[in-house]
C-alpha cells in the first residue's frame, strides 16, 4: 500500500504508477534528501515531537541508508514513486513505526524544493570551479599571445589588426560574467523552503531557522505558497547554463574556422581530433563540433522548463516534476563540456605567422590610413573616401598598403609623407590603441593582470 493510500480503495494502475514515478531520475537527490530529513528530525526533536531516542533511531537509520545507497546495496522501487518516498519506506522497513513519525509537519512539496536547492548549491559550485579552470587556460594563451598579431573581424571580414591575446581575452570576459552570474544565482538558491509543507505551513511550532542553520542555508523563504511553487531558481540556472554553452559554442565556431586549411590560424592537438573512415587526410575538430551541437539541447531544456511553468496556478502541480530531467540534463551537459573543452583549448597550437600574414593581406590597417589623413588636416569623410580609393587600387594591383610606394600614395594626397609606413604598420596600429580595454600590449597586459586577480580572489562556496 502507498504511504499516502489511506483514502484510496484500489491500487494504482500499473501503467499510471510507472507514468507517475520519478525515481528513475530523481534518485540522484538521495544524499540531499537524507540530509534534509536528518535536519528535519533534529528539529522535530528540538520542539518535542520526537524524543531523543526516536530522533537517534531515525537519524542513525538514515545514515545507514545513505551508506547502503553509496555501496549500491539498495534497489529503488518504482512503486514508491520518488526518492523521498523510497527513502521513507526503506527507513520504516528498517526501524519500524518510529520511521512513520519523520514526515510530521512536512510535505513532499517542500521536501523536493529543499532537495533541489541543496543539489543545485553543490552543482553550481562545481560549474564555477570548472569555469575558473577554463579562465586560467585562457589567461595562459593570452599571456603568450600579447604580441601575436591577427586580424579582427566584423561580418566575418578582416576589420582591424588585434592580437591573439586581445581576442581570447574577450572570451575571458564572457566566462567571467558566467561565473559572476552563477555566484549571484547562489544567493537565490540558498534559501531554505522546508516548513512550508504542502502550501500553507503547519500548526506545529516548527523552528525553520534551526533547519536552515543545520543545512547551511543563508535564510528561509518568506511565503509558504511561493516556497513550494517557485522554480525561478531552476529557470535562472538553466538560463545561465544556456549562456555558458552559447559562449562555448562561439569559441568552438572560431576554433573550427581557425583549424581549416583556409584560415590555418591554429592546429588541433591529435588527442582532441578524429579522422575520417574514408578520407585518410582528414583531421576533424569533432570535440568543438560536439560542444557546439550540445548547446542546442541545453537551450531546449531552458525552453522546456519555461513552458512547463508558464501557466501553472498556485501552488504545487505535478507538472513541476518535469523540471528535474531538464535541469539535470543541462547540468550534466555543461559539466561534460567544460573540462574536455578546457583541455582541448589548452592543447591547441597557434600559427602566429599565418595570423600575421592574414592581418596584412586583409587591409586591416586601412582605418589607420584614414586616421593619418585626418591628422594631416583632411576631414574624416574625405579621408575615408581617399582611403577607399587607395584600397581599391591595391586590390587591383594585388599589393598591400605597406607595399605601395610613396609616389603612388601621393597621387591620392600630397599630404602623405614617408611617415605613413610607420603609422600604418600593424604593430603601430595596435600599440597606439593603448586606452583601457584596447588591444595594445600594455592594455592587454593590464587586463590579464586584473583578470588574474579576479581568479585569485574568487571564493567558491563549498556546500559538501
Q: What are the SSEs and their pairings?
A:
Layout: H1 14-20, H2 23-26, H3 30-46, H4 52-70, H5 83-95, H6 108-143, E1 149-154, E2 157-163, H7 164-189, E3 191-192, H8 208-214, E4 219-220, H9 224-229, H10 232-258, E5 266-267, H11 286-309, H12 323-347, E6 349-350, H13 352-361, H14 366-375, H15 380-397, H16 406-410, H17 420-423, H18 426-431, H19 441-456
Helix pairs in contact: 3-4, 3-6, 3-8, 4-5, 6-7, 6-12, 6-19, 7-10, 7-19, 10-11, 10-12, 11-12, 14-15
Quick summary:
The protein has 464 residues and is mainly alpha-helical.
Low-confidence stretches: none
The biggest sheet amounts to:
2 strands, antiparallel
What's the name of the CATH homologous superfamily of the largest domain?
Answer: Fumarase/aspartase (Central domain)
Helix content: 55-70%
Order of helices and strands: HHHHHHEEHEHEHHEHHEHHHHHHH
Question: How many domain units?
Answer: 3
CATH topology (fold) name of the largest domain: Fumarase C, Chain A, domain 2
Number of helices: 19
Q: Name the assembly state.
A: single chain
The total of beta strands comes to 6
The separation of the N and C termini measures 35 Å
Residues in β-strands, percent: under 5%
Shape field: elongated
Which class of the largest domain in CATH terms? Mainly Alpha
- Average predicted confidence as pLDDT: 96
Q: Main sheet: which strands, in order across?
A: 1-2
